[in-house]
Design goal:
seven-stranded mixed β-sheet
């Protein structure tokens, strides 16, 4: 199989895809960010090709892939349908496109403080509005993926959603993921301008591994996340 990971980020999925197409298949990763591409190249074998490119105008041969894997990427586009149509042109006849999207459920992190959770969620939406020009409707489009694939005239569209549930005590891998992806890099100082001073200080304490109240060390920590994968054929 010839497989494209469109929006491959720093390459977390590339080795997994590579293992599934060996010994004769080929994997190509593509991402818009030069920093992501450099990091992906650093940690993958030479047999996997990673290119910098825009999935709206990919410099790849049409009708050349059996599978396109695209996770947590389409939601960043101002015109998701244009992105799907651009990727679909890269599929061989009968090829599949898999669009995945993760999401947080209501009452996602602070089960012990629903008010703080609400104001943090509102701050996140304001941050995305100012930083990326995305409004709340744009951030809630997971269930629109089925319709997008059908509007792109994909055949045999299916969807599956799983719930990922994590409770204290956390294993090392889960703790590292939540700290790097959310508690440090997503929240941190980014949300301070959108929160009242007391709330910003409380969030900072919850996100600080050196603080006695660090959220990931609380015995009542309970985190829910969903992952939806929608698949269609060309």
């Amino acid at each position: 199989m010839q497989v494209l990971d469109a929006g491959c980020g720093t390459g977390e999925t590339l080795n997994w895809l590579h293992d599934h197409v060996q010994p004769q298949g080929k994997i190509i990763g593509m991402d818009l960010s030069e920093a992501h591409v450099s990091e992906a190249r650093r940690k993958i074998p030479p047999s996997i090709e990673v290119i910098q490119g825009d999935l709206l105008t990919p410099a790849l041969e049409p009708s050349s892939f059996d599978l396109i894997w695209c996770v947590n990427t389409i939601n960043h586009l101002a015109d998701p349908l244009a992105g799907i149509l651009g990727l679909k042109r890269l599929l061989k006849p009968g090829g599949r496109i898999s669009i995945g999207q993760g999401s947080f459920l209501p009452e996602m992190f602070f089960a012990w403080d629903s008010r703080l959770e609400r104001v943090v969620n509102e701050a996140v939406r304001q941050y995305y509005r100012d930083r990326y020009g995305l409004i709340e409707r744009d951030l809630a489009g997971i269930r629109a993926l089925v319709g997008l694939l059908r509007r792109a005239q994909c055949r045999h569209v299916t969807a599956r959603t799983i719930t990922i549930e994590r409770t204290a005590p956390l294993n090392v891998e889960t703790r590292r993921y939540l700290l790097e992806a959310i508690f440090r890099d997503t929240w941190g100082t980014r949300l301070s301008p959108y929160l009242a001073e007391d709330d910003a200080m409380e969030l900072a304490r919850l996100c600080d591994p050196s603080d006695l109240g660090f959220a990931l060390e609380r015995p009542d920590f309970h985190f829910l996340q969903t992952f939806t994968l929608v698949v269609g054929e060309s």
